[in-house]
Structures are given as C-alpha cells and as structure tokens.
C-alpha cells in the first residue's frame, strides 16, 4: 500500500492562537482618578460659587433690592446651594437630579415674580447631564415637562409680580426655555454624537488591526504548511530510497560485495541530494542577503529549480537505482503547465514512489502520464507486496500534502486500493485553455 488514510493530528496551539487573535486591543489610558473627580465636582462648585456671589453682590446692586417677593436673599442662596448638592449625583441619577434642580428653580421664580434667575445655571447643568446619560425618549419627556413647568410657573409669576411690558415678558420666557433646555440638550447631543463617532473609529481601527493580525497569521501558517509539505516530500522521498538501498546493500554484502558497494554509492548519492535539497528549501526562511551569501558551509547554492513533469523520468531512474521495479509510460504530446501544476504533478509521483518503497517493498510500480486535450492525468500504481514493509505506517502526511496541492491547482486526486490488493494514486489536472489541435503520440519506457 502506498500510504495510510489517517489525517494529521490537530494543531494543539490553534485554540491559543485564535484566542490571542480575537483578544481586543489595549484600551487607551483613562484619566487619573483625581483629575476625573475634580472634573466631576467642577459644576456643583460653580453653582455653589454662584450662590455665594449672589449673597456678596446683593447689598451693592440696587436692582436686586427691587425683586418682587418678601423672601430674604439668603433663602434663595440656600436653594441654589441645594441645587449644587443635587448636581453631585447628576451622573448616577440624571432624571431625579433634573427634577430636583428644576423644582428648586421654580421655587425661586415663583417667589421673585419670575425675575430672579440665579437658579438657571443649575438647570442648564442638570439638562446637560440628563441629555448625556439618558435615553433620547426619556430626555425628551423630561425636557418637555421641565419647559412646560418653567413656562407656566414663570409666566404666572411674571404676570402677577412684574411690571415689565408683555412683549418683554414673552421674550424673557422664550429666552429662558432656550437657554435652560434647548441649548444644553443640543450641546449634549453633539457631544454624544462625537463620542459615538470616536467609538466607531476606534472599533473600526481595532477590527482592522485584528484582521491584519489574522491575515499575517494565515499567511505565516500557509507558508509554514507549504514549507512543511516541501520538506516532507523531499525528505520522505530520498530517505525512503536511502533506507531501501541500505537494506539491499546489507543483504548483498556477503554474496555480492560488488553490487553492495554500488548500492552504498547510491545511498551516498541520495544523501547528498537530500542535503542539497533541504538546504535549498530551508534557504527560503533566510533573508535575501543570506541567500546571496550562499550556504552556511561556504558553498554557494543556486536557486532551487521548480519540479516539473519533464523531470519525472529522473524520479523513475532514481527509484530503479534503489532497486524498485518501475515502469514508465507517457501518452499524448507533452506540454508545459503552470509552475504550481508542474510542482503538484512532480511531488505526487515522488511521494507515491516513496510510499510504495516504504509500504510495498519489492512490488512492481507503474507511472503513467497522459496528456489529453483538456487534462493531464498522472497515475502511480503499485501491485500487492509479499514482503514486510520496511517501516511502519505513519500519519499519512504524504497523502494529506498531495490533496492540498491538488486543491491548490483545482485538480482532482483519487487515492484508493486496487482490486489486486495494491494501491493507486491518480491526479487529474485540468487544462481548459489547451486547444485540441494536435494528434496524440505514444511513447513508453519499459
């Protein structure tokens, strides 16, 4: 049998890599706790400063003495202080704080004929906090209720306690609604929109970074897979030949020393070829500068040639030199395919012969290449072997690699036992752009 059916074991690090790839990026540094607390306490402090300033200017401003009502100024200042205290909780309970601050402002308006506006600043801050931290529907309902209450209470207070002209009173009422509710809510909505935009930009950047990392990891994984496949094809083929030749030489040492020496020379040749091919493959991991300097032992290695279908006869001859019985036939007019297709075809034959030597020693192998009008078909068949395999069956990385190469070029790989107890690998490579304009020829090498 050419190869085993077992697939390679799962990558044990795949879960850890996926978890690392999907882990979110480090969030930007947050402001220091002290600075955040100072910024949060700034609005209440400003309202409190307004209350203190009001008490400080009352004795010096005559207009404040003419404000209607009999409530002393310190009471109004105390109501503003209560607004400042309530604003300390504006983030946690924005609706409750908004209601409390607006109610205190209504008390000030109602007790001063609608002319004292020292509570307006607290309402502005409460409105901003409400619009920043609550849902839009709740914000609209609260603002409408506050605006209506302010209009009703302020309008009634000014109608009965103010001596200004009606037009001025209407303008003052509208200006109060715009100043206390409309402008703060608009600024808060703009700020929320900016935050959402920045958050979307950060999320997009995070997703782009994750996609980039995933792309890099996928590219790296694909390169490693391709390199592992190449190493397996090269090492598996040559080392299998070395093992077969060494066993044959061991069996011929006593009865045919000359033939044994020839087999040992084949072993040496295969070992050197394997070393050169491995150096060239590992050289793919080096930088361009390192490649330009040649091998690490002072030798200069030229670029590795791309395996081709035309080089398959050399594989057959190498297998025969190791003692395998291989028949080779070509049907149709040979032509050159793309580099990936040529490599896939070459590696499929190489791996099939290596597996035949490993799992079916002494069995006759047949390599057939058929060039048809729109396809190229390669078939490697080995008969059943009566000898014991030279090495135990492994995990089937060879068959796995052949399938990966077939999928890469859109080919079809069929691997199955034959009716006679052997094994057959057939690779069918589509060649749709090939015109059917030349007659078939037949050539065989038995």
TrEMBL record:
Residues 429-446 have a biased composition (Basic and acidic residues). Residues 1-29, 413-446 are annotated as: Disordered. It is an enzyme of class 2 (transferase). GO terms for molecular function: kinase activity. It catalyses: ATP + protein L-histidine = ADP + protein N-phospho-L-histidine. Keywords: ATP-binding, Kinase, Membrane, Nucleotide-binding, Phosphoprotein, Transferase, Transmembrane, Transmembrane helix, Two-component regulatory system. This is histidine kinase. The chain crosses the membrane at residues 41-61, 73-91, 97-130, 142-161, 167-188. Its EC number is 2.7.13.3. InterPro entries: HATPase_C_sf (IPR036890), Sensor_HK_TwoCompSys (IPR050482), Sig_transdc_His_kin_sub3_dim/P (IPR011712). Residues 223-289 form the Signal transduction histidine kinase subgroup 3 dimerisation and phosphoacceptor domain.
């Amino acid at each position: 049998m050419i190869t085993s059916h077992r697939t390679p074991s799962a990558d044990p690090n795949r879960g850890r890599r996926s978890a690392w790839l999907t882990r979110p990026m480090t969030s930007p540094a947050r402001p220091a706790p002290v600075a955040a607390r100072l910024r949060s306490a700034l609005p209440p402090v400003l309202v409190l400063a307004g209350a203190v300033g009001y008490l400080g200017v009352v004795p010096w401003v005559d207009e404040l003495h003419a404000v209607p009502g009999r409530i002393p100024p310190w009471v109004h200042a105390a109501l503003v202080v209560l607004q400042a205290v309530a604003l300390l909780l504006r983030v946690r309970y924005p609706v409750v704080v908004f209601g409390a601050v607006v109610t205190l402002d209504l008390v000030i308006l109602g007790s001063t004929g609608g002319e004292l506006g020292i509570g307006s600043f607290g309402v502005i801050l409460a409105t901003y906090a409400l619009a920043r931290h609550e849902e839009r529907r709740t914000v609209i309902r609260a603002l409408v209720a506050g605006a209506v209450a302010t209009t009703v209470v302020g309008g009634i207070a000014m109608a009965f306690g103010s001596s200004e002209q009606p037009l001025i009173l209407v303008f003052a009422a509208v200006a109060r609604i715009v100043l206390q509710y409309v402008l703060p809510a608009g600024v808060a909505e703009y700020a929320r929109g900016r935050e959402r935009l920045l958050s979307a930009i950060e999320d997009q950047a995070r997703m782009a970074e994750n996609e980039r990392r995933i792309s890099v990891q996928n590219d790296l994984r694909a390169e490693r897979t391709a390199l592992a496949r190449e190493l397996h094809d090269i090492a598996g083929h040559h080392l299998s030949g070395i093992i077969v030749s060494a066993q044959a030489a061991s069996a011929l040492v006593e009865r045919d020393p000359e033939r044994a020496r020839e087999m040992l020379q084949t072993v040496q040749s295969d070992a050197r070829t394997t070393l050169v091919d491995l150096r060239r493959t590992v050289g793919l991991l080096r930088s361009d500068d390192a490649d330009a300097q040649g091998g690490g032992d002072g030798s200069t290695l030229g670029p590795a040639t791309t395996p081709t279908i035309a080089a398959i006869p050399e594989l057959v001859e190498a297998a025969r030199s190791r003692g395998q019985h291989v028949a080779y036939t070509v049907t149709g007019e040979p032509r050159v395919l793309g580099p990936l297709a040529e490599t896939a075809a070459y590696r499929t034959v190489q791996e099939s012969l290596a597996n035949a030597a490993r799992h079916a020693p002494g069995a006759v192998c047949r390599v057939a290449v058929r060039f048809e009008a729109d396809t190229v078909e390669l078939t490697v068949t080995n008969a059943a072997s009566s000898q014991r395999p030279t090495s135990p069956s492994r995990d089937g990385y060879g068959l796995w690699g052949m399938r990966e190469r077939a999928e890469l070029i859109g080919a079809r790989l069929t691997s199955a036992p034959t009716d006679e107890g052997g094994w057959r690998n057939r690779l069918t490579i589509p060649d749709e752009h090939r015109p059917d304009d030349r007659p078939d020829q037949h050539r065989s090498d038995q």
